[in-house]
Amino acid sequence: MIDFYKSQLNTGAWKLTDSGPSRGGFNLYFESTSGFHREGVITVFSGTGGPTDISLDLAKSISTQTAVSSCHVAIGQTG
Q: pTM for the complete prediction?
């Protein structure tokens, strides 16, 4: 599942900037490559034998890297 998100975040208007484990989950950091500068993180939490939780945090930033707006979306569960 992580490989799917890594490949999708390196296509079109998005670029994967960093990834790695964090607090029991796996984070994929990305940013836009065109238009308004947007950056975000997809976090995947996989429990042993339980459901997989996926969340998305997306922020629109200005050149000073100060977030001017953001949203959090719980994408769903699998398993």
A: 0.70
